[in-house]
Structures are given as C-alpha cells and as structure tokens.
Design goal:
It is built from 8 helices and no strands. By secondary structure, it is mainly alpha-helical. Keywords: Membrane, Transmembrane, Transmembrane helix.
Length: 209
C-alpha cells in the first residue's frame, strides 16, 4: 500500500508537476514582491495565487475529469476513500497552509484573519474537487469554482453571506469573519464527504458534459 502510494505521487509529479508547482511559484513571487511593493504583493496573492490553488486538485483528479479516461473510470475499481477523499483533502490542507504562511511576511494579519484565509482556501479547493468528481469534467472543475470566487471578490460577498471567501482580507458588512470560518469549515468537510459518495456512485451520477 505504501509502495503503491509512493509510486502514485512519483507518477503525479512527473506528469503534473506544472499544476503542482504553479501555486507555490506565485506564492514565492508574492513574497519577493513584498520587498518592493506591498500592494502589488497582496494583489498577486488575492487575484492570482488564491485562484490557482485549485490546480493541484485538478492534477490529482485529472483522470476522472479527462475525456480519455472518464469512461474507463466509470467501471474501473477504485479505492474511493483514497482517490476521492484522502489525496484531495491532504493536498487542500497542505497548499492552504502554504498559502496562509505566505501571507505572514507580507502583511501583519491577525490570527483570526489567518485562520479565515486557511479555511477559505480549504473550502475553495474542496469545492473544485467536488465539482470535478460530480461532473467528471475538468472544465467545470475549473470554471465553476473560479466563477464563485470572482463573484464574491467583485461584489464583496453580496448574496453569499458566510460563504464569501475573502472575508479575511476584504470584509463584507453582511457577515462576520467568525461566521465565515465556522460555515466554510463545515462546508469543506461536507463537500469532501459528498465527493466520496459521488465517486462511489459514479455510475449512477453520470453527466456527459
């Protein structure tokens, strides 16, 4: 089991290293940019780095969202807990932690704001994982989470209340950061478990999109 998992991550790195590295690359660029222009650094984190956090989820789930592999995976036996829960959740926790850590040298965020950023990143990544598994389509797995994210950004969370992903940075008067942390944390858990159920029932829930 351990040997197979090591082989999987080696294969994933060889085939999808660009998607895995891109968020880390922009985090590093943001940290370096902070030495010259703090506003540029923050904008780079908010408008570039945060959106591309879904790329590692695409990398680990690309097979189920690929037109070339989707039909095979409908009948292929899978360890749904490992494939649909452990790997995506582990990636979301690690990359969200890296994103939160990249905020610290750029601006003096309060602890609650850092927790809010971490929770929002985890929810955003698990939302992408759930949509990709539900529709078995990479395009949907990218477009819908991005649309939700940018809608919240450009309306300051209008109409989405505690699901607003940028409350920790650009607060909305309609909700509180504490409510967002609690709501988004529970929602991330629910979406991760729902993704496992959809993957287990992938023959039943199958859309040709």
């Amino acid at each position: 089991m351990v040997k197979q998992e090591i082989m999987y991550w080696q294969y994933l790195w060889k085939t999808q290293y660009i998607l895995l590295l891109l968020p880390l690359f922009f985090m590093a660029c943001s940290i370096m940019a902070a030495q010259y222009n703090a506003d540029l650094s923050i904008n780079l984190l908010l408008f570039v780095t945060f959106p591309v956090l879904i790329f590692p989820m695409i990398a680990t789930l690309y097979q189920i969202g690929s037109l070339h592999h989707k039909e095979l995976l409908l009948t292929y036996p899978l360890n749904v807990v490992l494939f649909g829960w452990i790997r995506p959740v582990l990636l979301s926790l690690i990359y969200s932690l890296c994103f939160t850590a990249s905020l610290m040298p750029i601006k003096n965020y309060a602890n609650e704001e850092l927790v809010g950023a971490y929770t929002a990143a985890v929810l955003y990544m698990n939302l992408a994982s759930f949509i990709l598994i539900l529709f078995k389509n990479i395009g949907m797995g990218i477009a819908l989470p991005l649309a939700f994210l940018f809608y919240g950004m450009f309306t300051t969370g209008s109409g989405i209340s505690s699901f607003y992903l940028m409350q920790w940075s650009r607060p909305s008067p309609d909700t509180t950061l504490e409510d967002c942390i609690i709501t988004q944390g529970f929602t991330a858990i629910i979406l991760s478990l729902a993704a496992v159920y959809c993957l287990k029932s992938r023959n039943k829930y199958h859309w040709n999109i």
